[in-house]
Amino acid sequence: MKRLKRRTIIALVLAAAFAAGMVFFLVQWLWKGDEWVGFFGSQYYNSGAIYDTNGVLLYNGETGEYAENRATRVATLHLVGDQNFGTSLRSVLSDRLTGYNPITGTALGSHDVHLTLDASLNETAYAALNGHKGVVAVYDYTTGDIKCLVSSPSYDPNNPPSDVNENSAYEGVYLNRFFSSTYPPGSVFKIITTAAAIEEKDDLDQFRYTCTGSLEVGGDVITCPYAHGADMDINQCLACSCNGAYATLAMELGGSTLAKYVEQAGLLDSLNVNGISTASGSFVAEEDGSAYLGWSGVGQDKDLVNPCSLLAFMGSIANEGEAVVPNLVGSETIGGTAIPAALPDGKDTYETYSAETCQRLKEMMRNNVVTEYGQSQFGDLAVCAKSGTAEVGGGAEPHAWFAGFIDDPDHPLAFVVLVENGSAGARVAGSVAAQVLAQATAE
Ligand SMILES: [Zn+2]
Description:
This protein is an alpha+beta fold and 443 residues long. Helices cover 37% and strands 19% of the residues. The chain is globular.
């Protein structure tokens, strides 16, 4: 009798364990079934195809083949991805590509995904980077549609380099730098300091600065490449990117005020782009009166920005303060028929600065191009921009930035170009932007 009781208890324990296991499995199945179905290397389920906005095939899920053209494969590798890329669309859209849902499984068939991206723009952007590591991104700031998104270095997925893990030329190759990296913003940050000055300094129109090429601040010396000139107003100070003037403004505004404007610009937040979480930037509010505070106001110190949130911020300046979260997916189809329910939900937006502040920034960024960077390289496009040259230390060439937008309802495009170790921002990164924008706006 005693033995029988023990056996009953054991049987009950086993039954309870089984039931718990079933519950665990069911919960996992409901939550992660899409991931299991889409798991890389799975031979059991068909995946749909990925096309660019013009119908160029970027990835064939049935055959596992990439684009026909080598330049297309290289320039879209980070978006399409192979098993090494965690932020690739094959990875984050696996449930859509397999057409999986917990009720019908994959019985309804795989989905094809049609991107907003123009692959030929990616090819131009990748070629324009000319072997440099970096990022080029262009998007429609009214809809969020990404037109161009390149992360360099890349490689041909049909012929992966054998030395990809040892060769420094491929350093960080598996990262999509646009989504997953943060960089010192350099002088692009002066847009933030300018916004803070517009809103916090009632006498900004009377602000004048004389640059002698260096300024002593908090026991350190903040330098400019040369003496920028006498009695410059705020527009001139931004156009020539005077470090002395911006360190002076940062000292007046204070670290906590600058921090508030970095946060308001959305640069400290992570964005969700079709299921991809972007890296968030950082800013340290330095002590009042310190040289660090001066350096933080010119974008050096410890400031870091993510290229994707910078792109959305640039778009918001063009868009009266409304930032539109970037989006890559245009439509989904089964056997050529659109799936209305699967279309992306309404665009995702957030507010940055007031419409008045954005209008003033827009005029100043337009002035940068006209008086400093050179309008001729942009044809007749109303480009508004800020360049940046971010010191990276260690004797390496600085990173070159060029970020901004076109102020034109017919071409509502914002852009970010970062050329790692590219040296002077306006010349190097500005030229990459000019090539891509010319093609993006061509009829
Ligand atoms: Zn200066």
